[in-house]
Amino acid sequence: MGFQAILQLRALHRELDEAVLAAYGWAGQISLGHDFHEVETLPENDRIRYTLSTGARKEVLRRLLTLNHERAAQEQTDASPKELKKPAKRTKRLQPPEDDLFTQAAANTAPASNWLDQPFAISAPSRTAFADADEYRAALVPELLRQLGVAAAFDRFHKAYWLLTRPDDLARVASKHIQGPIRSWRKSYPALLQGQDFLSELKGQVTMQRVRIFRGKDNVRRIDLLAANVPSFADVVEDARLAILVTDLWPSTEEQVPALPATDEKQLAKWEMHV
Fold it and tell me: What confidence score (pLDDT) does residue 1 get?
């Protein structure tokens, strides 16, 4: 592809993005700022893309989240009592072969769309009495992976975990975008996590083949939950979902997740599979 063809392709991408913006009724309200920008969810050594500016991307995500809440609320209002009481149709789940790790991950990890497509409002349920940080971390790490879905980008998992080590900042940003008693959540949140201490939990999970870290053909580090029937706690589910949502809405003006130390990167590299 020649240089002129590349320029034409970029122009088409800009036109498409502007058309989508107009379809939502937001034409002229958001400056998309197409240029070469760093995309924080990509691998550290390959983050530059020709795309929307960081501010525009986060504003679009914010508006889509708001629109999602509005439409879901309207659907609930419009639904008849019979529709609301209609039981969900049960389907039989097929069990994957025990030797197919990737298929196991797909079966045992809830796809992100299962809950990201629904309105999310924090409810601040009663807290599970974890004895210490190790117990809470053992529940949180697999829950984050379950809520992120199959083959999640490791950097996204890392950032969500990091945000839960900074609950004051997480709550402050969340309160601007997410419905529910964020202040109550913050008061009840145990704030047991520190820095990169998730690596100690990952080591045990990888050793027991409950989690896998791998790189695909795109050379992006990814992470999967392989273990079935991992205990789930309502408060930890909310912690994980809140952190994941704020990960995608985190302003570029805020402090960003620090890079892992070289020793930790070396350890992760040892755990990686190549598929």
Answer: 62
Find the mean pLDDT for residues 251-270: 89
Cα(243)–Cα(92) distance, rounded to whole angstroms? 32
* Mean pLDDT value of segment 229-243: 89
Higher pLDDT, 171 or 106: 171
Among the listed residues 157, 173, 155, the one whose alpha carbon sits nearest the alpha carbon of residue 41: 155
> The domain containing residue 46 runs over which residues?
1-91
Pair 203, 99 in one domain: yes
Q: Where are the beta strands (DSSP E) in the chain?
A: 35-38, 48-51, 152-153, 211-215, 221-225, 272-274
**pLDDT grade, residue 44 (50/70/90)?**
low
Q: Of the candidates 91, 111, 134, which is a domain's last residue?
A: 91
Strand-pair category, 35-38 with 48-51: antiparallel
